Request: fold
Amino acid sequence: MDRMPSAKRPDRSDRPDRSPRSTETTGTAGTARSAGPFTSLDFQLVLLRRMADHNPDLVDEARRKLGVSAADMREANRRWQAMIHSPRGRAAASRYRSVLGAPESVTERRIGDLTCEAWQWPLPLWPDLRFEVLVAQKGAVWNEWLVRAPGAPAPELRTSADLRPWSCTVDEVARAFAPARPLEGTAPTRWGLSFTAADTEGVRREYAAEFTWGLLQRVSVTGQPR
Reply:
């Protein structure tokens, strides 16, 4: 598997957050939301924290819709990382159930010679998407990402201009611009695809698309016109 282009910004989401604390909050200035049960809202902030390196403006707009601050987002990510790395933490599948509740749907899915279950949950930030976890036997999680919701219209991806941040998922880009080649991401929640696509003038070039939690973040040109 090829690596992502070297121009990719470093991933800092799993490192201790040493940036200055924001004074924008939903409560007392300089403080994050009070500690309590980790909820679906907190989980959406975890997804946004991962996406902030690529699209800070979209992330800022999204968290304002949720009515939370940058400090809230950092705190949610800190708590999530603590849950993941706790020696007494839940298994991944159980953790998602405890945070997101019972899945909206559970579907058996076959991948090669292996059978798993696809659990899906709705998230208010992305009503046309679902958060999907592929669960194997004994609760092992194979994959976790955002996918198109059943029955929701997929975007029309014809040229590179259609590839806008947050507009499409990994599998949608792979189908639209087949054959796409997977690229090695810089973290478990990041994916990449290399493919050829035409621009609005019909000129074909090589592109690399970067995804976080399965959602498109940015696209860069990697080859000369063909």
Notes: Residues 120 and 132 are 4 Å apart (CA to CA). The radius of gyration is 18 Å.
